[in-house]
Design a protein that fits this description.
Number of domains: 1
Largest sheet: none
Number of strands: 0
Helix content: over 70%
Radius of gyration: 22 Å
Order of helices and strands: HHHHHHHHHHHHHHHHHHHHH
Strand content: under 5%
Length: 511
């Protein structure tokens, strides 16, 4: 029996061509596909959230969100970070992708029942009951279904076939909205809505499985060596992801235990507003990750420039959302109702989380793409210690405000360490210098919004966007080369949409 080769040493990595137009067009196209579909999914989901918040009230919505937070504390056990490794190997055209896919599926089918038993064991030990326990059961099924579906997504991501990911996500959201909406119209309680969530997860998995069958990757029985290789590569990611998940969900769990479900509802509702930006960020990172993996072991200067530009573009968009949430937090109770007035209080705090979180997640992708996933363990471990300590100190005294403050400080900690590791072991970046002009443009818009507090939301939101764009252009934030590349990428994207350009990776056969 032969062990699978180490990809860093023995797999020929094909870097993308040096043509910036080609690279930019591919990234923009994939980002656009995911972003548009993501905005559709999140837009529909946001509408559903408004309906659920108004229908269930702060306490009922808090129960719904608290069950999700509790279950997803254990989510890493269901996946172990295997999907990131699978996407990386597919992007590199590793010869044993078929075997790795089968191995990932095998490992997840083994991990799923153990994860399910652990979740329910903890719930029983804590004495949970009623709607909260029902929610834990339903979200546990959703977790296991999602874990299998994400392996399909990893293959699509590595191939650059983002349309399949988009389609599966849209189907999942539509099924939940349709079934959940029917439950609301019929006056059903929270338990029926949670069952609708499980049904949507089943449908998403069926769609992903069908789409995977259309990709020319055969099913090869995995050897023990492949299983061991994947586990060895993924365990550092799993440890880091488990720390990340814990400090992302622990605040809601502790808030529910110490302050009740109502405060969980206020707190988690504020986090939902951030999804308007995170869907764009995640779409971009999913599209650019295969490029990171392709160039990670080549020209480090080129990689450093790519990372700098990636962070810069994301933060340019993030600053607009921060402006809106800091100066216009009244959008929360306007949408959710007077029962969520306290959500407006913490929305400005949560908005600032976007800056360190975006930097941190981007650097994590770079570290994984370059084979430095072990470094992430230190950063996320430190952030977990900071987060747990702050939550235990702040939540008992300040409640949901303390949870928001703990989240912001934790993200700063993990971002700082991840940036250090990328600078030290991967490539030099120049993030601070790159975002100086966008920060100045955002500051000028913030001053205008501060001086015009009486603007209605339908006036303030587009005005802020136009002023911000004007400020970016006036400060010459974008070079002539970047604008030309953007124009070329847009033209290429339109050509792809019309079917004039063949898909880049649709015919990849790893056998």
């Amino acid at each position: 029996m032969t062990h699978p080769p180490e990809p860093e040493a023995s797999v020929a990595t094909q870097a993308p061509p040096d043509d910036g137009r080609s690279l930019g067009s591919g990234i923009l196209h994939n980002t656009g596909v995911l972003a548009i579909s993501g905005l559709v999914v999140r837009g529909i989901g946001m509408g559903m959230m408004v309906l659920l918040a108004r229908y269930l009230g702060a306490e009922g919505y808090g129960t719904y969100q608290r069950a999700e937070a509790f279950v997803f504390l254990f989510s890493i056990l269901a996946s172990l970070g295997l999907d990131m490794i699978l996407a990386r190997e597919v992007a590199r055209h590793t010869p044993r992708v078929s075997e790795y896919l089968a191995a990932v599926m095998t490992l997840k089918l083994m991990l799923g029942p153990a994860c399910f038993a652990l979740i329910l064991g903890f719930a029983r030990a804590r004495g949970y009951e009623g709607d909260f326990l029902w929610g834990i059961w339903c979200y546990s099924f959703v977790l296991l279904l999602t874990a299998i579906g994400q392996s399909c997504d990893a293959v699509f991501q590595g191939l650059g076939n983002m349309g399949y990911i988009a389609l599966a996500n849209i189907v999942n959201q539509l099924v939940f909205v349709i079934l959940g909406g029917i439950c609301i119209l019929l006056g059903k309680d929270l338990r029926w809505i949670l069952v609708a969530l499980v049904a949507a997860g089943v449908m998403r998995l069926l769609v992903s499985s069908y789409l995977l069958s259309r990709v020319q990757i055969s099913w090869v029985r995995p050897q023990p060596g492949a299983l061991l290789y994947l586990l060895k590569q993924s365990i550092p990611i799993a440890f880091a992801a488990s720390c990340f998940v814990v400090y992302q969900q622990l605040d809601a769990v502790l808030l529910g235990e110490l302050k009740g479900n109502t405060q969980v509802g206020w707190y988690k509702a504020s986090a939902k507003f951030l999804l308007f930006f995170t869907v764009l960020r995640d779409s971009f990172l999913v599209a650019v990750y295969p490029v990171f993996a392709s160039v990670a072991h080549g020209d480090r200067t080129r990689l450093g420039n790519l990372v700098t530009r990636s962070v810069r573009y994301q933060l340019i968009v993030a600053l607009y959302f921060i402006l809106c949430f800091v100066f216009l937090p009244r959008v929360a109770p306007k949408l959710l109702g007077d029962g969520f007035l306290n959500t407006a209080t913490i929305l400005p705090i949560m908005a600032w989380v976007l800056v360190p979180q975006t930097i941190s997640i981007t650097m994590s992708y770079v570290l994984i793409a370059s084979g430095n996933q072990k470094r992430i363990m230190v950063a996320t471990g430190l952030a977990l210690l900071v987060n747990v300590g702050l939550n235990l100190m702040l939540i008992p005294r300040f409640g949901y405000i303390g949870a928001a403050a703990a989240a912001a400080i934790s993200e700063l900690a993990v971002a700082g360490v991840n940036v250090y590791y990328v600078q030290r072991y991967v490539a030099r970046t120049h993030i601070i210098r790159a975002i100086t002009r966008p920060v100045l443009a955002a500051a000028m818009v913030g001053l205008v919004l501060y001086l015009l507090p009486g603007l209605r939301l339908y006036q303030a939101l587009p005005l802020a966007g136009l002023l911000y764009l004007a400020g970016l252009l006036a400060l010459r934030t974008f070079s002539g080369s970047e604008l030309r590349q953007l124009g070329a990428a847009v033209r290429d994207g339109l050509a792809r949409a019309r079917g004039n350009v063949e898909p880049v990776a649709g015919d990849f056969d790893p056998r």
